[in-house]
Amino acid sequence: MASSSSSVVQFDNVFHNLGTTAGKLRFTQGGLGWKPAGEGSTHTLVASRFKAFQWLKVARGYQLRIVLNEDEDNENEEEDVRRDNFDGFTKDEYDRVASMVRDLYDSSLESVEVSTRGWNWGKAKIEEADVRFYVKDKLAFEMPISHIANSNIAGKTEVSMEFAHPETQQPGSNTGATNGTKPLKKNKGDQLVEMRLHVPGTVEKTGSGSDAEDDDDEEVTAATAFHDAIKRKADIGQLAGDGIVVFKDVLVLTPRGRYDVDMFPTFLRLHGKSYDYKILYQSINRLFLLPKPDEVHVQFVIGLDPPIRQGQTRYPFLVFQFPREEEMDAELNLDEETIQTKYEGKLKKRYEEPTFRIVTNIFKVLSGQKLTAPGSFTSTSDQSSVKCNVKATEGLLYPLDKSILWVSKQPIWISHTDIHQVIFSRVGLGGATAGVTSSKTFDLRVLTRATGQEHTFAAIQRDEYDKLNAHFADKRLRIKNEMNEEGVLGTAAAVAALEQDDSDEDMDDGSDADGREGQRKSKKKASKASKAAAAMAEDDDSDEDDEDFEAPSEDDGGSPSEASSDEGAGSDDGNFSDASEDSDAPKKKKAKK
């Protein structure tokens, strides 16, 4: 229902954007004002921002869409809204709205036809700040380009668009991703996170040069051209000169590849050969700087929430690798006043340091997160990590002061506050010696509190047991040792199995009478085997191998999974040790015949 006077036009029961509360919408020559029914703030717009008016059918009746000019008074260009939507109009109000637009703002009301065919094929166009999909020249759907977090080529003719989460990807301020201010999950609805468009064919790509000798324009796939257009438009509010610094050709282990890292005031971009990622600093929730045992490289691990995606694969961690001795000169595109005021002097105008120190310092300042380095733990080879497997994947386990971090293709991070129990157990062998435990390696199993999930880190060298046990005890974690129990049971079973084999051979070679004698001998041998097993169990903790049985090691890893917790921090700085590689384990002795 609408009411009007000489200079004021009012409409009742109108919804603003996606809000669920109706209100009153008033238009004057100076602009508009929308006030919700009951409690709530009034939304206003000045008439100087009105660019165009559109009328279209939506779920809640008809919508009046007002396309807006740039807000010159808004310094934060990322929050510069370019259109306002008002739903709840009736079909009969079209003439009144058109008359109001003409009389008050000397403009016209454009009627936009919406396709209801339900087809999933048509034409995709990039118009102004939107990606629009048309079916038979009618609008099927549209989406703001500013909501597209990443765009990738998924195959030669397929373009993948990943959408920003409205809470984590459009922040008002860089407050960190784990500040506990998120609304309850039960209040969250479903969110579209990815859309793929099949864009067949090729197009001609004209070069920027004006040389007449280039008669033939370069031909590229239509999918590539569409993808490039989205990338150019997606950086709304970020000009070429807004970048702070660019790190070229950085080796990224997860996701694998070499990327150029462009650092901007509020986000960073990873430019790779096949994939590009846009990551807001607010989605960074933890940073780790870790030395590798080779004493040549260091790893920089970045935790992300929400994780980036590559198809159906989620990457909650980025893993950068830098040569320890590599140095670079870097100059930030910031003036001294900005460094002192906005960044509190934590950045420098010019750097001449090792590359990994420059990168970690800039990430630390821009993300506002603490940098965690190895703490008090040292292995038997004076390293801050131990080698182990998760399933068939080898990685490095870093026991930090307040958490555990396993670094490989898909890192696993577990905070000490989320650890219910750590369990030391040995690896069982298969075949005829099933149950025999190897004295060379052991498994570390970690049970979590929140989900009860178990993480198994397998094939850890036996001589690392004392170091790990002392570290976890010092951190007051609950520890269980299953190695002694497995040693007693496993050895007894192995002795019985081998003695039974000897008995079978004796029985096969003898007559019936000799067979009965062989059985009596077998019982005596089994009795001796039981006594031998009991004696061996007493010496189970010895580092020496059993001289009577061969016990080759066989790795049995757990399944990799993502670990998360709202707790996590460590020491700000850590000294990287320069110890050598782990020494070779002693050779195993052959079994006696």
Automatic annotation (TrEMBL):
Sequence segments annotated as region (Disordered): 166-189, 499-593
The keyword rRNA-binding is assigned to this record: no
Example of a GO MF term: histone binding
Key words of the record: Chromosome, DNA damage, DNA repair, DNA replication, Nucleus, Transcription, Transcription regulation
UniProt-annotated location(s): Nucleus; Chromosome
Composition bias, Polar residues: 167-181
Every Histone chaperone RTT106/FACT complex subunit SPT16-like middle domain range: 383-482
Stretches of the chain forming a coiled coil according to its record: none
SUPFAM superfamilies: PH domain-like (SSF50729)
Role description: Component of the FACT complex, a general chromatin factor that acts to reorganize nucleosomes. The FACT complex is involved in multiple processes that require DNA as a template such as mRNA elongation, DNA replication and DNA repair. During transcription elongation the FACT complex acts as a histone chaperone that both destabilizes and restores nucleosomal structure.
Protein name: FACT complex subunit POB3
